Amino acid sequence: MHEVAAAPAWVSLAYLVSGVLFILALRGLSSPASSRRGNRYGMAGMLIAVVTTLVTHEVASLPEILIAIAIGGVIGFVTAKKIAMTDMPQLVAAFHSLVGLAAVLVAIAAYLNPEAFHVLDPSGLDILQVSRIEMGLGVAIGAITFSGSVIAFLKLNGNMGGKPIMLPGRHIINLGTLAAIIVLVGVFHLNTPELFVAIVVLSFIIGFLLIIPIGGADMPVVVSMLNSYSGWAAAAMGFTLHNTAMIITGALVGSSGAILSYIMCRAMNRSFISVIAGGFGGDTGGAAGGEAKEQRPWKRGSAEDAAFLMGQAEQVVIVPGYGMAVSQAQHALREMGDLLKAEGVKVKYAIHPVAGRMPGHMNVLLAEANVPYDEVFELEDINSEFSQTDVAFVIGANDVTNPAAKTDKTSPIYGMPILDVANAKTVLFVKRSMGGVGYAGVDNDVFYMDNTMMLLGDAKKMVEEIVKSMAH
Ligand code: NAP
Questions:
Q1: Nearest alpha carbon, ligand 1 atom 14
Q2: What is the pLDDT of residues 302-337, one digit of tens each?
Q3: Residues 246 and 179 placed together within one structural domain of the fold
Q4: For the whole prediction, is pTM greater than 0.85?
Q5: Is residue 332 within 6 Å of ligand 1 at its C-beta?
Q6: What is the DSSP annotation of 80-133?
Q7: 399 catalytic, yes or no?
Q8: Ligand 1 pocket member 429 (CB < 6 A)
Q9: Are residues 113 and 262 in the same domain?
Q10: What pLDDT, in 10s, does the model give residues 131-169?
Q11: 96 and 74, same structural domain?
C-alpha cells in the first residue's frame, strides 16, 4: 500500500540526490560569494524532485499541472524582478503564506480522497491511523503558517499598524487554543469531518493570535520563524504523501529557519521564546519609538570636508545600514571606494548582522554593486580595527552603531552587539536630519562626539557629491 516501499531504487536515489543538492544549496547560501552557486544547486534539486515525482505517480492531468506550473512560474518571476530590495521581507512572508496554504489544501485533498493518496488501511475502508496524525499535524502547522504569514505581510507592508496588539489574557487564550489543537490531533483517529474542520479553523485562529501581538521590530524574526513552520508543514505532508524529497526538504527548511531565527534573536538581543510565544512579557521591541530629543552641540560637515578627510586617510571603514538601502546608495558608494583605493586608501566595509531590515540585506546590496567580497567584513572580524581606523563612514546606519546598547540598561537595544565606530579617529555620519531616529527610535551619542562630523542629506546624493569632490 505504501508507495515508498514499492518505489524503484532509482526513485530513492533521485530523491537522495535532490536532498544532497538542497544541503549544498544551504551551504552555498551561507556566504554572498557562493550564493549564486547555492541557488543553482537548489534549482537543480527541485527540478529533479519535481520531475521524479511527476514520472513516478499517476497524474490525473499532466497538461493542467504544467499550466499551473507555468502560471505560478511567471507570477514568481515577474514579482521577483519587480520587487524592491527593501520590500523583500514582506515578499518572503507572502511566499510562506502560500506554502502553508498548499499544505492545508493537500491535507484536505488527502482527507477527502484518501484512496488517490494511498493512505487507506489494508481493509481499504478507513484512512491509516498514522496518516491521520501526519495529516492533522500538517494541516495544523500549515494553517498556522498561512494566517501568521498573512498578518506578518500586512504588518510589514504597512496595511496594518506595526504596533503590537495585546489582547487581554492572550497567553491563556493562546495556550488554551494550542492545547485544544493538540488534543484534536490526538483524537483525530475518530475520523470525523467535524474534527478535521475544527483543527483547520483553530489553527488559522492561533496563527493570527500568535502574530498580532508582535511588534514591527521583531517581525523579521517572525518571518524567519514562519519560514521554519512552513518547512515542518511540508515535512508532515511529505509523510502523508510518502514523498521522501518533501520530507527532506521540509526538514531542511524547518531547521534552517529555526537556526536563522535564533541567530537573529541573538543579534538583536531578543529572547527566542518571547518572540515565538507572541509578544510574551509585553516587550514592544522599541519600534514604537521615542523621539530624539535633547539639544546638544554637534558638528556639521560638507561633502568636500568628507572627501578631504577620507583622501588623507590610511584606512576608511564604511558602515552601511538601512538608509543606504532606502536611498540605493550602494553603486555610488562603490565608486567612492574605487576612487579612495586609487588614492592608496585602504577601504573596508563593516556589516552588522542586523543592519538593514533582513539578514544579509547589506551583503546583497553591496554584491549588487560589485563591491569585492574580500573588502566586506562581519562585525566580529572588524570591530577591533576601528581603533586603528582614520575614518568610519557611517551611511544610513544608526542603531547598529549606538553605544547605548552597551551603557544604557533602559535602552530597547541594550545588550545588542554594536560596531564600535566611536573608536575611529573621525566618524562621518550620513543621515537626512538630526531628528530622524533609527529603527529602535532612540538617540545616538555618536552624533554629538567631538570626533564626529554629521553629513546631513540623502545618502546617495551625499556620496555622489563626495565622489564629485574627489574627482576634482
Ligand atoms: P536604523 O537604526 O534603522 O537607522 C537607519 C538610519 O538611516 C537612520 O539614522 C535614518 O536617519 C537614516 N536614513 C533613512 N533613510 C535615509 C536616506 N534616504 N538617506 C540617508 N539616511 C537615511 O538602521 P540600522 O543601523 O541598519 O539598524 C537596523 C535596525 O533594524 C536595528 O535596530 C535592527 O535591530 C532592526 N532590525 C533589523 C533586522 C535585520 O534582519 N536586519 C530585522 C529586524 C529589525 P534619517 O531618518 O535622519 O535619515
A1: 323
A2: 999 999 999 999 999 999 999 999 999 999 999 999
A3: yes
A4: no
A5: no
A6: HHH--GGGHHHHHHHHHHHHHHHHHHHHHHHHH-TTTTT-B-TTSSSB-HHHHH
A7: yes
A8: no
A9: yes
A10: 788 888 889 999 999 999 999 899 888 888 767 777 788
A11: no
